[in-house]
Amino acid sequence: MKEAVWNAPEPTGLHARTAGLLMKIVMGYKARVDVSANGRTADGRSLLGLMGLGASAGTPLTIRAEGPEEEQVLSAIGAFLTGSPLS
Questions:
Q1: pLDDT for res 12
Q2: Are strands 40-43 and 60-66 parallel, antiparallel or unpaired?
Q3: Is 86's pLDDT higher than 70?
Q4: Which positions are catalytic?
Q5: Could you report the per-residue pLDDT of 6-21, keeping only the tens digit for each?
Q6: Which residues, in sequence order, are bridge partners of residue 37?
Q7: Partner of 31 for a Cys bridge, out of 20, 40, 67, 71, CB 3.0 to 4.6 A?
Q8: Tell me, what's the pLDDT at 44?
């Protein structure tokens, strides 16, 4: 299992559009991904779960990936959340 922490993106945090884009990234990989914030944890493949975290801009998001492609999915999520291009 791999884990990383990033802040929810500015300016709106993990709202519907951002949560949907994050979910779309996760769906492209075989690893199980859990996202935690504000004392809650959600499956990275659940739009409602991600939105239910209540992660406003700058809220720390703990991302845990387990299984095949765990490093790749964390890299893709990190690039998305930080605005960095994928290599």
A1: 86
A2: unpaired
A3: no
A4: 15
A5: 999 988 899 999 999 9
A6: 40
A7: 67
A8: 98
Show the CA angle centred on residue 73, arms to residues 58 and 27, nearest 5°.
Answer: 95
Rounded Cα distance between 68 and 46, Å, is 19
Give 62's DSSP letter: E
In terms of Cβ atoms closer than 10 Å to its own Cβ (0-12, 13-18, 19+), residue 86 is exposed
Each residue of 25-82: pLDDT tens digit?
Answer: 999 999 999 999 999 999 999 999 999 999 999 999 999 999 999 999 999 999 999 8
Pull the structure tokens for residue 53.
């975290």
Provide the 8-state DSSP code for 33.
Answer: E
Put the strands of the sheet holding 60-66 in their side by side order: 2-7, 60-66, 32-37, 40-43
Nearest partner of 62 among 83, 41, 86, 47, judged by Cα: 41
Phi-psi region of 84 (alpha: psi -120 to 50; beta: other; left: phi over 0): beta
